[in-house]
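Hey, quick one: can you model this chain's 3D structure?
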Amino acid sequence: MENNENSIYALKTSAGQERNVARLLARKSQDSGVGICSILVPESLKGYILVESSTKIDMRNPAIKVPHLRGIVEGDKDITFEEVKKFLKPEPIISSIQKGSIVELVSGPFKGERAKVVRIDESREEVVLELIEAAVPIPVTVKADQIRIIQKEAD
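Sure thing. Here's the predicted structure for all 155 residues.
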């Protein structure tokens, strides 16, 4: 249930420092009583964190000053809980993979190799690939989070 007295703010951070900023901000706000209720670090939103607060976030407040926090994103309207919901339950990686797509393996023994998606097993979150550079096509089964899509299948 959404509390109508609280507002949600987007804060800009240095890329890759989102979790550190969130941790420091949570600690400092607890000690100073700044009114921060919750902090969300969405994986898909690089360089930003979302903060729910009962008071307006004032970047001049010393309690808000933490390393790598760059500022508040000013906007015409408040961020609604409906807009934040999509970050709470991210879409599984497997749903964006299509048969025939060209991918690069980002971990495991074939790291750096390019491959073509042959089959997708959504229930197990696995994909079966054929390595492009291999002399003989051998099917390789990997978890969906071990690949990065380079080129989607053209319809």
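One thing worth noting: The first strand starts at residue 7 and ends at 13.
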